[in-house]
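User: Here's a chain of 169 residues. Predict its fold as tokens.
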Amino acid sequence: MRDDAANGHRDDEMRAWHERAAGMDPAAPERRHDMSQPLEQPQRGRRKGYYARQVEAEAARQGLTVEEYGVYKGDVGSAVKPINSAGGLLFLSILITLIVTVVAVLMVKVLTDGTEEPNWGQLVFAAAFGLWIVPTTWAYYVNERKAARLRRQNGKTIELPTRRNSVRD
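Assistant: Prediction complete.
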């Protein structure tokens, strides 16, 4: 049978040993870390992606906030002219959702039919892609819809960037 006072003493000894190992002075109470609280790690800034930096720069150039600017409106990195108005993004979101739904129905048919062995790699990839692309397209639509509403409320307009006036890294 263990004595609670002895266990408490052992805990204090272990805490002091860990603090000495970490380079802390266990005798200095102002430098002691409360072991019940997690250690604060220095926060490293995560570098923003290319398109996030482009949105910030273009919004600043036009005197808009990032929320008012909305989604990236340039055509750098795309083979076709982007559709990035709220109506265009709504159309694309509905279209992609319908296509993914048809693919999901066909996947269920392949799995339940049993006439041929399914290619699990393709099925898993298609499912993962569908679970990623559908919420992403709807998030872009919601973001642009909110930005259009904010611009309308504040009486601001937006000038679509061209390759000549887009900010270069």
